[in-house]
Amino acid sequence: MTDVDLASRVVGGSVVAASDESFGFKERLVDPAEPAFVPGTYDLRGEVVDGWETRRHAGRDGDWAIIRLGAPGRLYTVDVDTRSFSGNHPTACAVDACALERTEDPVDPGVVWTPIVEMTALKADSHNPLAVTDPRRWTHLRLRLQSDGGVARLRAYGAVIPDPVLWTGVTVEVSGLEQGGRVEWCSDSFYSSATSLVAPNRPHNMGDGWETRRRRDIGPDTHDAVIISFAVPADLRRIEIDTSYFVFNASTEVSVLGSCSGPDREHGWGRVAFDVPVLARTALIPDARQVFPVDVSGVTALRVQAYPDGGIARVRALGVPTADGLRVLQSRWADSGGSARHDGGRW
């Protein structure tokens, strides 16, 4: 599966400032929906665009926008998406990053920004994926345009690096996107993506979940499945299976298996054994949040098996990191340049 979009509104990303937004609002940059544009639709600002668009003639310094990542972490790719912007796309852009404490102001002139993508020409009406090699953990991005123009979306793909202080002595939703949980594989995603399963918010309609095609090979063990990995090994205490909004098409049963190992570079998750029983095959009811107590130690990932097909909105695994897992978190935090000081608030 793809890396997590750390800037998305799904995980709490926000566009906190911009040099100008005369034609298109800056907040659209982190909208999780795909950009949609209807030519010939006008309002008092001009043609309605689904993205951030500045006025003409930005001047020598170009335009800029600052994005607070919803889930701070290490970045691998920043996609500057100019779809539907052709005669009005920016000529080029650069991306800077910084790591700030929760209440620090990213617009303060004293903030030290680190270039993570040098000025690069942008293609019109296209995805523009820009590679990031700096391994540090960041909390904010600054998109600098060489000119004025319009950008539909900014996606910041990477890996969440959780703060180990926030995992110490508490039960954590270890499967959650905000905590480094990831959907690694699923058997089918005909109607909607399985990545919704680990989203932090409650589902808001039937499209906000994982729905597979209707299977025609029904048998006693016929099922769809999804693999969800954790940031570090954890001792599990509770599993939640939420079928909200799936009224006539929810999966009828579910079982959950765990693994105590991880993938290798050659085969990925394809040869990982899921041989630890977490939740026996259990009947589900439609359109309901269902909670199951469990007690399983040292789990690194889950294989959720949905019988025989259908829809599940969310899967939540709650637990505490193992002692080794907490040490891995602390090491990862230190290696990424995480601050040793905390003000007691969540990022």
Automatic annotation (TrEMBL):
Reaction catalyzed: allantoate + H2O = (S)-ureidoglycolate + urea
Stored InterPro entries: Allantoicase, Allantoicase_dom, Galactose-bd-like_sf
This protein's pathway: Nitrogen metabolism; (S)-allantoin degradation; (S)-ureidoglycolate from allantoate (aminidohydrolase route): step 1/1
Keyword field: Hydrolase, Purine metabolism
EC number: 3.5.3.4
Enzymatic class: hydrolase
Coiled-coil ranges per UniProt: none
Allantoicase domain ranges (all copies): 12-160, 180-320
The family this protein is said to belong to: Belongs to the allantoicase family.
Record's protein name: Probable allantoicase
